[in-house]
Amino acid sequence: MIEPNRQTELLKLTKELIAIPSTHSRPGKIHECNQWISSWLSARNIHFTTTTYQNVPSILVLPTKSYSPMLLMSHFDVVEAEDSSLFTPRVEDGKLFGRGAIDDKYGVALSLTLFDQHLHRLTKMGRGQEAMPFGLLLTGDEEIGGANGTGKAIDHFSTDFFITLDGGNPDIIVTKEKGILRLELIARGKAAHAARPWLGCNAFDILTSDYARIKELFRDEAENHWNKTVSLTQCSVGNGSPNMVPGSAYAMLDIRYTENDDPDELIRQIRAVSVSEVQIKTQEPVFSSGQSDYLNTLIAQSSTTRTGCEDGASDARYLSARGVPGIVWGADGEMSQHTESEHLVISSLFDIYDRLDSFITTLPVLELSDVA
């Protein structure tokens, strides 16, 4: 069981990371968070490498130059917060509140603390980081798709199994996540004076009619919501003039789909019912964990743990797309991600720490012959 001093350290580390507002509207703060983590690692003589693509920093902590048997993944960028007080962490009723508390600053703190603890144990045995049975990947762009974080980092290492600390809870290991489609609708009408609308064609009317028809394609709903969904997440109309019939209108659709859906067929259907032009902005695959003895070991260690699926998406898809087995797992945030009440259930943080600590302890340390 995690010792009281480790509990204190883990909470303190999570709070310090939350206090850095590392949103993508503040790229300097993402780099500040990257530097904060780098300094933390350096102070403990933990070897790491940093990479930057398209101004996105990532940190790799591996036992060898380019291989780790198992990998813990987390990210230090967070979504925007209209209320700046969300970057001032607070504890209330056994919960830690703040932007990134559950998504995903706790995951970074948990990864760092576990690595430091297990490296300390190896040092006592006369071994070093080269014998560590796991490594870390910490990235700075998961919230905007991960293309320049995990999407680039995977070219620099190999692993046999990964755990993305970005979903589920101690009793639910996520083995499937939905794929993502982001489509832009572009409606073109005819501008006119608002006093004479019959002389124009309102582009917003075209857009809303299209959206109503598109929603009809998503009416089927499963009991557990494991079905395709669509949400209109952004919309803009006209040129901002209050007395004009808008000649153009734009909307962004966020679509999540399961392994039972064909994304190309979905796009075809949406184009067939739309007057608006449909442009593909993002198309990401479904995540599926794959088979692994690592996963079997995790499940065998706890009679309360079960596997499940999750509606969101994570950077896990980048590794699974290359055939690397892995899971999404972590602490409990009571589905508060991206909300104004984002929080972490503190007891679940200590619970997942204990479970991961026990699991890592079962892994054999690396020998020179393992990486020759």
How would you portray this structure in words?
It is a single chain. By secondary structure, the chain is α+β, with helices and mostly antiparallel strands. The protein folds into two domains: 4-177 and 286-371, Aminopeptidase; 179-284, 2-Layer Sandwich (Alpha-Beta Plaits). Helices cover 32% and strands 27% of the residues. It has ten helices and 18 strands. It has helices spanning 4-18, 27-43, 101-124, 150-153, 203-216, 263-273, 293-300, 316-320, 346-361, 368-371; strands at 49-53, 56-61, 67-75, 90-92, 95-97, 134-139, 158-165, 172-177, 179-188, 192-193, 229-237, 244-245, 248-257, 277-284, 287-288, 306-310, 326-329, 343-345. α1 (4-18) crosses α3 and α3 (101-124) runs parallel beside α9. The longest helix is centred in the N-terminal third of the chain and has 24 residues, at 101-124. The chain starts with a helix and ends with a helix.
Poorly predicted residue ranges: none
Shape: elongated
Evaluate the radius of gyration.
23 Å
Query: Could you say which structural class the secondary elements and strand pairing correspond to?
Result: alpha+beta
> Which band does the percent of strand residues land in?
25-35%
Q: Strand-and-helix sequence, N→C?
A: HHEEEEEHEHEEEEHEEEHEEHEHEEHH
CATH class bucket of the largest domain: Alpha Beta
State the share of residues found in helices, binned by percent.
25-40%
* Tally of separate helices: 10
CATH H level, superfamily name of the largest domain: Zn peptidases
Counting copies of identical and different chains, the oligomeric state is single chain
Report the sheet with the most strands, covering strand number, pairing sense and barrel closure: 6 strands, mixed
Mean pLDDT: 95
Domain module count: 2
